[in-house]
């Protein structure tokens, strides 16, 4: 069985596995981000679902590899399945709201989000995990004496394929092709592999792959794929007329039309709707009326919903309008009626294309009023405009009598506990910075935060008189409406709701983001809400029960299973590595605001680390068992200490001196932080396969060992992605989750050292 051709094929298939996996993962992440309204929690959920499927595929196949006589044939069938499943997955993701009967434009609850991610990703990821274990099984046939070496080769070549795929999809494919087109041609690559690797040994499979490839070419030339693309978008946005869809580097932009009005969605989340006069008037007139003499206004986001038009009603006013994505405004102006986009061409309006957080940090301009017109902090991207750090940044560029205004969804007549928690958090956070904070109650709560100690008389008469004095004509915010909006009952209710101190919302502990998710979940079911209500009392000390339990059980069971500490270390490393990756994703979003653009770079950098780590570990195969175990313990120590650096790294990159570099070298350097975690994980996995193969007493095959460890690694990652991204980070903050990983890995390090079978190695460390 051993031949140079077989080894080349093994490397080629390993390369293709990583290549296919990372491109599919990045494309799916972006598609799910649109389906899940851009919520960064979805990245953690998707990674968890992805890794769970891979883990199951690897683990189950590792149990039955000895029964498979022709691994090449099964590998070919799996290539065929991948070729069909990956494009089908794109169509399934776009149909997710129809699957769960969720109206188009409505935010998906946490439970449907988790259920749909696991349901839709499980088939293709199971195949990917099984493919890896089968490659290890084939390696046994190629060389029974040097299987461990070949397993290391598979791991390295898979990671190399992932690196190549990540670079290709991040910098070329997503800029030129739609997700559906990328998925189709990725399927074609897998069909070509069947033809190149199988040759004509399995004629039926060979012919089937050839026919499928021929059909793909005919369909492409006939424009069938474009028709399917349009059909899938129509399903995704049913009840709307889809005007156009583009993928800018910052977001998926979808312009739809209904009843003569246009709506623009960014990553599935409503950016603005034309004709939404009430929302525009809420954003503008309370804040500008409260200011004694507004002259210069900074508008952050969504000027085309009528907000710019309302601001320009004020005499002698100028507006700096900050919008990150220039393609968004170009795209909107291409289709919107001229009267909607006319304010953009007004000489009093200055368009600034930049991340608003970075602009606020570096600008030398000073403003009378800053208006945050972004909607609820339902994502980490939006939450960064409701944090303590942002409020301090705005104070720097506000005049002494300056005002900050923002609006969030609420309830007009009844405030449930979830709404109270949410409003208390926002009110308490702003109150840490501004001398006075007022809330205008209603379906939309308008916050006014002032630097001045001179109290704003929030009343119907005050706002009505100011609008009349300045000659401002409005449809809703007027003398007839204001007494209803600002009656004593509502004002007393809102004051009572926020008088208790709420949790302060910060960049690294986005608690308002979590509160808003909980608040939205009350519209769908009570299960997630009830679970989160119980978890809100969770503290760092409570989390310490987990490593203590692992230590106790591990210490007790090690006498029965000498490899238990090794297996635990692989699982906890998988947990920690994905937590570090989720932390980088969220921290990048907080600091730079366009993780949708850099998600491929973040994934690729982790894979690059795996390549380097696996390559270095494979070079150590000649060492003694004692030397390998000592090296393994040192790597575990590195994994333990690594998260201690993260808070300092984030502080370094968050420094205002780098604010102007959001599109430069610093953002790219930040995005490749996972390379260090990947390096240690890659080394540890390859060394673990080697050690377990040397010291196991059960006669397990190398393919079974590699599949088992791969499954444990990915299973740990599954739990890490789901728990950290969806619950722990918003609840406890990035720093405390990082410290939890320190304790968790330290406990496993102690178990590794304590294992009396290798006690003599302590002298070598």
List the helices and strands and how they pair.
Layout: H1 4-35, H2 41-64, H3 71-94, H4 96-99, H5 110-142, H6 147-176, H7 179-198, H8 203-222, H9 224-236, E1 241-247, E2 252-258, E3 261-266, E4 269-273, H10 277-290, E5 296-300, H11 307-311, E6 318-322, H12 326-335, H13 338-341, E7 349-352, H14 356-362, E8 367-372, H15 380-383, H16 388-396, E9 398-409, H17 417-431, E10 436-440, E11 444-450, H18 460-469, H19 482-485, H20 488-498, H21 511-521, H22 527-535, H23 540-543, H24 545-557, H25 564-591, H26 595-618, H27 625-653, H28 665-671, H29 674-695, H30 702-732, H31 734-754
Parallel strand pairs: 5-6, 5-8, 6-7, 8-9
Antiparallel strand pairs: 1-2, 2-3, 3-4, 9-11, 10-11
Features:
Rossmann fold; about 775 residues; about 65% helix; seven-stranded mixed β-sheet; about 10% strand; four-stranded antiparallel β-sheet; disordered C terminus; 31 helices; single chain; alpha/beta
Q: What does the overall shape look like?
A: globular
Low-confidence stretches: 656-663, 758-765
Instruction: Report the top-level CATH class of the domain at 270-521.
Output: Alpha Beta
**If classified by CATH, what would the architecture of the domain at 270-521 be?**
3-Layer(aba) Sandwich
Spatial arrangement of strands, main beta sheet: 7-6-5-8-9-11-10
CATH H level of the domain at 270-521: which superfamily?
Vaccinia Virus protein VP39
Largest sheet geometry:
7 strands, mixed
- The beta-strand count equals 11
- Please report the distance between the alpha carbons of the first and last residues: 40 Å
What is the SS-derived class?
alpha/beta
**Cα Rg:** 28 Å
Tell me the helix content: 55-70%
CATH-assigned fold name of the domain at 270-521 = Rossmann fold
């Amino acid at each position: 069985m051993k031949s140079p051709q077989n080894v080349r094929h093994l490397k080629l298939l390993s390369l293709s596995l990583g290549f296919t996996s990372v491109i599919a993962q990045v494309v799916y992440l972006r598609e799910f981000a649109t389906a899940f309204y851009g919520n960064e929690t979805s990245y953690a959920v998707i990674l968890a679902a992805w890794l769970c499927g891979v883990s199951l595929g690897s683990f189950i196949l590792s149990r039955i590899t000895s029964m498979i006589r022709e691994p090449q044939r099964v590998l070919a069938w799996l290539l065929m399945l991948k070729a069909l499943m990956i494009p089908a997955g794109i169509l399934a993701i776009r149909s997710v709201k129809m699957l769960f009967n969720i109206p188009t434009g409505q935010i998906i609850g946490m439970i449907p989000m988790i259920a749909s991610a696991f349901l839709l990703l499980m088939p293709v990821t199971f195949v990917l995990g099984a493919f890896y274990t089968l490659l290890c099984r084939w390696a046994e046939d190629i060389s029974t004496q040097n299987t461990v070496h070949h397993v290391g080769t598979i791991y390295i070549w898979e990671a190399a394929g992932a690196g190549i795929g990540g670079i290709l999809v991040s910098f070329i494919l997503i800029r030129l092709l739609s997700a559906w087109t990328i998925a189709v041609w990725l399927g074609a690559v897998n069909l070509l592999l069947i033809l190149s690797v199988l040759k004509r040994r399995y004629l039926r499979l060979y012919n089937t792959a050839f026919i499928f490839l021929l059909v793909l070419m005919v369909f492409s030339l006939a424009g069938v794929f474009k028709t399917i693309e349009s059909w899938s978008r129509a399903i995704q946005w049913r009840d709307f007329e889809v005007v156009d869809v583009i993928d800018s580097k910052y977001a998926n932009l979808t312009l739809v039309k209904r009843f003569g009005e246009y709506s623009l969605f960014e990553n599935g989340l409503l950016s603005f709707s034309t004709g939404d006069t009430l929302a525009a008037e809420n954003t503008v007139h309370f804040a500008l009326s409260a200011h004694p003499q507004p002259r210069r206004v900074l508008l952050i986001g969504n000027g085309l919903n009528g907000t710019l038009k309302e601001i320009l009603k004020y005499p002698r006013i100028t507006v700096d309008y900050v919008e990150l994505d220039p393609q968004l405004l170009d795209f909107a102006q291409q289709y919107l009626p001229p009267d909607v986009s006319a304010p953009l061409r007004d000489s009093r309006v200055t368009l600034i294309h930049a991340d608003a957080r970075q602009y606020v940090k570096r600008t030398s301009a000073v403003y009378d009023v800053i208006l945050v017109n972004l909607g609820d902090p339902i994502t980490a991207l939006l939450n960064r405009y409701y944090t303590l750090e942002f409020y301090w940044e705005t104070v720097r560029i506000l005049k002494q009598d300056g005002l900050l205004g923002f609006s969030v969804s609420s309830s007009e007549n009844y405030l449930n506990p979830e709404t109270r928690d949410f409003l208390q958090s926002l009110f308490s956070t702003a109150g840490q910075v501004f001398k006075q904070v007022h809330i205008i109650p209603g379906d939309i709560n308008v916050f006014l935060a002032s630097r001045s100690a001179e109290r704003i008389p929030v009343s119907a008469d005050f706002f009505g008189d100011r609008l009349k004095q300045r000659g401002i004509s409005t449809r809703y915010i007027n003398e007839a409406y204001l007494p209803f909006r600002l009656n004593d009952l509502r004002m007393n209710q809102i004051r009572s709701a926020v008088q208790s101190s709420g949790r302060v919302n910060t960049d690294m502990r986005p608690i308002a983001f979590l509160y808003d998710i909980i608040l939205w979940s009350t519209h769908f079911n009570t299960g997630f809400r009830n679970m989160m209500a119980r978890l809100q009392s969770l503290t760092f000390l409570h989390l310490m029960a987990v490593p203590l339990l692992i230590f106790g059980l591990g210490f007790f069971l090690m006498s029965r299973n000498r490899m238990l500490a090794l297996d635990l270390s692989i699982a906890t490393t998988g947990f920690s590595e994905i937590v570090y990756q989720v932390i980088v994703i969220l921290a990048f979003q907080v600091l730079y605001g366009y993780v949708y653009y850099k998600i491929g770079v973040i994934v690729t950098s982790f894979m690059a680390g795996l390549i380097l780590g696996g390559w270095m570990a494979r070079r150590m195969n000649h060492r003694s068992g004692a030397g390998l175990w000592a090296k393994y313990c040192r790597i575990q120590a590195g994994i333990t200490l690594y998260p201690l650096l993260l808070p300092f790294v984030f502080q370094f990159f968050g420094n205002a001196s780098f604010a102007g570099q959001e599109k430069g070298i610093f953002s790219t350097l930040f995005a490749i932080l996972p390379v260090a975690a990947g390096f240690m994980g890659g080394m540890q996995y390859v060394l673990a396969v080697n050690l377990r193969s040397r010291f196991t007493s059960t006669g397990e095959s190398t393919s079974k060992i590699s599949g088992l460890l791969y499954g444990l690694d990915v299973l740990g990652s599954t739990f890490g992605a789901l728990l950290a991204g969806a619950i722990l980070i918003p609840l406890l903050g990035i720093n405390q989750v990082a410290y939890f990983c320190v304790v968790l890995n330290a406990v496993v390090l102690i178990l590794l050292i304590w294992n009396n079978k290798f006690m003599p190695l302590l002298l070598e460390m």
